[in-house]
Design brief:
This protein is 67% helix and 4% strand. It is mostly helical and 106 residues long. Helix 6 packs antiparallel against helix 7 (73-81).
Amino acid sequence: CYRILKHNQQAYRKNQEYIAGWFGFMQTQIGYDILAEDTMTALLHNNRKLLEAKIKIEEINTFVELLRKNRECRYIDHLADLCSSKDKAIPATQEIICAVVLHVKN
């Protein structure tokens, strides 16, 4: 299912916006190896509007928790993809990632 969604959203803003409306549901399925996180990352890649609107501390906490549990480099790639859009930094997201990653419990 996520493979189809990932393919469907490529270069089509209307589909991207519709799929982004399901971020909450997709968030609950991250970490089950069903490509939910890959679909989210593909959807957000170079889409500053969606990055700024949809990525909050909850999403970042999810990726950091998965990184802590599974120690897979793809979660670092997902976090890195959230930091910029079209080679321009997104300071708010970068600050949240730093705060979460550098928190005492990590």
